[in-house]
Amino acid sequence: MSIARRRSRTGERVIIGGLFACAVLSIAVTVGIVAVLVVDAVEFFRESSLVEFLTGTVWAPGQGSGEGGQYGVLPLINGTLMIGVGATVVGLPLGVLTAIYLSEYASPRVRGLLKPTLEILAGIPTVIVGYFALQFVTPSLLRPIFGEDRVFIFNAAAGAIAVGLMILPIIASISEDAMRSVPASLREAAYGLGSTKRQVSLRVVVPAALSGIAASVILAFSRAVGETMAVTIAAGNSPKMTLDFFTSIQTLTASIAQTVSGEASAGTVRYNALFALGLTLFVITLAMNLVSARIVRRFRQVYS
Amino acid sequence: MTQAQIEAKGRDAVPEAPADPVFRLDDVHVSYGRFLALRGVDLEIGRNEITAFIGPSGCGKSTLIRCLNRMNDLIPGAKVEGRITYHGQDLYGDDVDPVEVRRRIGMVFQKPNPFPKSIFDNVAFGPKVVGMRPGSMDELVERSLRGAALWDEVKDKLKQNALSLSGGQQQRLCIARAIAVSPDVILMDEPCSALDPVSTGRIEELMEQLKLDYTIVIVTHNMQQAGRISDRTAFFTAEAAEGSGDRTGLLVEYDRTDTVFTQPADPRTEAYVTGRFG
Amino acid sequence: MTTSASAADLAPSSLRRGATRSGARILVDAAFSALLFVGTIVGVVALATLLWTIVDDGWARLVADPAAFLTSYVSRLPARAGIKAALAGSAYLMVLTALFCFPVGVGAAIYLEEFAPRNRVTNFVESNISNLAGVPSVVYGLLGLGIFARFLRMGPSLLAGALTLAVMSLPVIIVAAREAIRAVPESIRLGAYALGATRWQTVRRQVLPAAMPGTLTGTILALSRAIGETAPLLVIGLPIVIFSLPNDLRDPVSALPLLIFDWTSRPQPAFAQAAAAASIVLLALLLAMNAVAIYLRNRYTIRW
To answer: What's the confidence (pLDDT) of residue B277?
Structure first.
């Protein structure tokens, strides 16, 4: 029989090199994002003080190139947090209740109907949810209940409800996964002692799935913070330090949207401010995503 | 198997030592990371013979057979020490391409694993990727399917998906696939353990035919199968080294099949083949 | 990870109602079940209300003269405004985005699943991709603005928009493709190697074809998300008012969600109706894409 000799396969090596390049492209993307944000944000901080940015309570870029405007980011952080917290107040209970129902109570047939419904809800484009918030939630829900003089046309509550609906599927889906991963043996032990379904759900399943639920909430909060269109449409464009949910506010993201809609030529303070905002947003969401991922990793270890 | 049955098979035709060894193993040790799976194996595989590896689970039979076509290379941390030669050449030499090795030393697996394609495409896959340019692929596929005793059953449905065949047919398809690349050796890792007795019998018959053209090495848990079809049998067992809990496989006895089954030299072999353990 | 039997099956039915449960307990159980039901139904009702609002507001406007609506450009007069440029723009963007991110995404997935050694570089690339999946879309818009539109001088063009959407969709496609590749059983690869096939031959001729249905499904779903995105395109500066279709990659192009955003932001009720009508078109488009994806998955996925 003939000798087994190494065949030269340079063609294949080239292909594998190409595949490697595709994978490494993702690093290039991250580098691009960080570069673009940092470079222009640094430009911004050269003209406008970093201290004022981090501690100022007025965000008023002013006209034209934006020179001489006030660039304190706190009102925008305020607005972003209001939306984030508000959306979580809406999405968390609804999401967890839905998850418990899907995991512990629902028949396979109901699950088969509910899960696609949640996916549809998650897939609605944010502009359309924003429209819904502006044209229905405020006029037909908030204003009739709380009074027209109390609730502005653009208000944080409508934005929070809209974003809450958008993050509901995330919380429901991940929490449900976490609950279903709880071993049947734990439930059986509780049922065997005479517990009702409610007691098993609340005392055994939910506590066991808590880290998964927590991870889903952080992830959802991060989504809410990064959400742009629904809040731009429904929550308004008035940066202010307030805790009143019925007034108009502005989030970090809405501010970015507003700035690009206006006059923002390259190189101006106004333009560079965009990237300072972007950098802030990026850092916040990245931190939350990392925390969430770490929690998920720890909870997977417990049950695998 | 009784003495009479063995003699009736005319097994005395098997020479004492392999006349024209295809493989020579010298003091072969195989380890996965820090775990020593197999130690000190010396044997020769004879050409156009059926050699069976038998023994209880976990004694390295599958590990050894996978060294013969370098499938063990795919497991991270696997290391082969000692010398394995194939027709006199070092199988693990620096200039040896594992891909070429596998083209000449084929393998059939425990659970039939046809590709999710047509029957024709399954058989034609091997020749295509190794760069064979047969005059007619149709002829090559037919020859291979005939060689696996499957042609008559599938000749009218070559374009049908291979997954629609029965388990026994799928395994014969895997054999056809293997012989399509004209290998020298066919390794079989418990090829019948997932099949019913009827299919098993058909494949055993097939193997008697195949050995005329190929050298066959088979790992089997089924002692009777080894006794029925093999010319030579290697019996393995696993023993723990002193002080360690891990059991390492080792070759106990290797001889003509009738000798191993009727006059085993080692008491461990005798205990196994008479069913007292394993 | 999930148990095949629903947790609901494990609850034993009581022999006699009230046999082991006191009256108070039964009440609490019932109240909890009701709470779960309400919590779950709120999401469903919200979705239904949202869809109803859109259809109710926009249907009349759409069916009054659908041809005109679909083939007219925008106008200051809401009655004459149409979505021609926006719809065509979205279509062009979708095709171009797919062209960019499908090969790169699948290539990266193949490399990571089949060729990448298990080392720290690979882990870093993988966690980087996970992080990119959580970056807000508006930040991708800033990347597009800073690098594609400005630095690479593409301007607010079809090319810049498609590249931005492609980069944004990349992590999602990589995840979907990896899952599809992972679903191919190892026995298939081993069978191919044992015949003397190289790794690349095995991937190209066996693994990839088998993984294609799942990969395509995931890609279509990723694209349908991208088409509903407004923020990145807004930030790059794609126009809303445009009276021609693109002839060239460097031509400016509009998009349907951008138009919906603009119309929603106008005070005139007639524009709100137009926005709703455009939303119906967008939702129909998404529905069609998702239906295709699900059809592909059901029809062509190999059941091993």
So the answer is: 58
Between positions 173 and 202 of B, the ones with CB within 8 A of A are: 184
Chains contacting C with at least 3 CB pairs below 8 Å?
A: A, B
- A177-196 per-position pLDDT tens digit: 999 989 999 889 998 888 88
CB-CB neighbors (< 8 A) of A13 in chain B: none
> Is C190's CB within 8 Å of B109's CB?
yes
A163 beta partners? none
How high is the pLDDT of residue B134?
A: 78
- What is the share, in percent, of chain B residues with pLDDT greater than 90? 69
Superfamily of domain C78-300: MetI-like (1.10.3720.10)
- Residue A203 pLDDT more than 60? yes
Residues of B in contact with C192 (CB under 8 A): 115, 125, 129
Q: Which has the closest alpha carbon to A161: A100, A235, A225?
A: A235
Neighbours of chain B (3+ CB pairs under 8 A): A, C
What's the DSSP call for residue B161?
B
Give the whole-angstrom CA distance, residue B61 versus residue B230.
16
Q: Where are the domains of chain B?
A: 20-110+185-273
pTM: 0.89
Question: Would you state the structure tokens that stand for residue B209, as one six-digit string?
Answer: 């035919």
Domain ranges of chain C: 19-64, 78-300
> Under an 8 A CB cutoff, do A4 and B96 touch?
yes
Determine which helix (DSSP H) or strand (DSSP E) holds A82, and give its type and residue range.
helix A74-100
Q: Check CB contact under 8 Å for C36 and A100.
A: yes
The CATH class of B20-110+185-273 is alpha beta
Which residues 96-115 of chain B have a CB within 8 Å of chain C?
99-100, 102-104, 106-107, 109, 111, 113-115
Domain at A70-303: CATH code = 1.10.3720.10
Tell the residue number behind the tokens 């080294």, with chain if given: B241
Encoded tokens for C35: 């709470």
Give whole-number Cα distances, C204 to A17, A84, B131, B159, C27, in Å: 15, 46, 15, 21, 61
ipTM given for this complex: 0.92
Please compute the mean of the pLDDT values over residues A108-115 and round it to a whole number. Answer: 92
Mapped onto helix, strand or coil, the DSSP state of residue A239 is coil
Cβ partners under 8 Å of residue B218, min gap 6 = B50, B51, B52, B53, B187, B188, B191, B207, B226, B229, B230
Q: C196–B126: do the CB atoms touch at under 8 Å?
A: yes
Residue B71 near chain C (CB below 8 Å) = yes
- Per-position pLDDT tens, chain C of length 304: 444 455 555 565 555 555 556 778 888 889 999 999 999 999 999 999 999 999 999 999 999 989 999 999 998 898 889 999 999 999 999 999 999 999 999 999 999 999 998 899 999 999 999 899 999 999 999 999 999 998 999 989 999 999 999 999 999 999 999 999 999 999 999 999 999 999 999 999 999 999 999 999 999 999 999 999 999 999 999 999 999 999 999 999 999 999 999 999 999 999 999 999 999 999 999 999 999 999 998 888 887 7
* Number of Cα atoms under 13 Å in the Cβ half of residue B84: 21
Residues on chain B touching C114 (C-beta within 8 angstroms) = none
Burial (CB < 10 A; 0-12, 13-18, 19+), residue C27, is exposed
Q: Which residue of A has its CA nearest to B102?
A: A4
Cβ distance C165 to C226 under 8 Å? yes
Give φ, ψ of A111 to 5 degrees: -60, -40
Question: What is the rounded CA–CA span in Å between residue C214 and residue A189?
Answer: 39
Quick check: helix, strand or coil at residue C223?
Answer: helix
